[in-house]
Amino acid sequence: MSQTATMTGTAPATATTEPSGPRPKPFFTPKRIIIYTTLVFFSLYFLFPLYVMVVTSFKTMPEIRFGNIFALPSQVTFDAWIKAWTSACTGLTCEGLAPGFWNSVKITIPSTIISIFIAAVNGYALVNWRFKGSEVFFAILIFGSFVPYQVFLYPLVIITRELGIFGTLQAVIVVHTIFGMPLLTLIFRNYFASLPVELFKAARVDGAGFWRIFFEIMLPMSLPIFVVALILQVTGIWNDFLFGVVFAGTQNYPMTVQLNNIVNSAQGTPEYNVNMAATVLTGLVPLIIYFVSGKLFVRGVAAGAVKG
Amino acid sequence: MQQSVSIRDLSLNFGNVKVLERLNLDIAQGEFIVLLGPSGCGKSTLLNCIAGLLDVSAGQIFINGKNVTWMEPKDRGIGMVFQSYALYPQMSVEKNLSFGLRVSGMKKDEIDRRVKRASEILQIEPLLQRKPANLSGGQRQRVAIGRALVRDVDVFLFDEPLSNLDAKLRSDLRVEIKRLHQRLKNTMIYVTHDQIEALTLADRIAIMKNGVIQQLADPHTIYNKPTNLYVAGFIGSPAMNFIEGDLRDGAFVAKDGTSIPVGSYAYLNGAGSGPAVLGIRPEHIFVGEAAQGMPYQADVEIEIVEPMGSETLAWTTIAGKPVTFRCSSDIDIHAGDKMRVGFDVARGSLFDAKSENRL
Ligand SMILES: Nc1ncnc2c1ncn2[C@@H]1O[C@H](COP(=O)(O)OP(=O)(O)OP(=O)(O)O)[C@@H](O)[C@H]1O
Ligand SMILES: [Mg+2]
Question: What is the pTM of this model?
Answer without folding.
Answer: 0.83
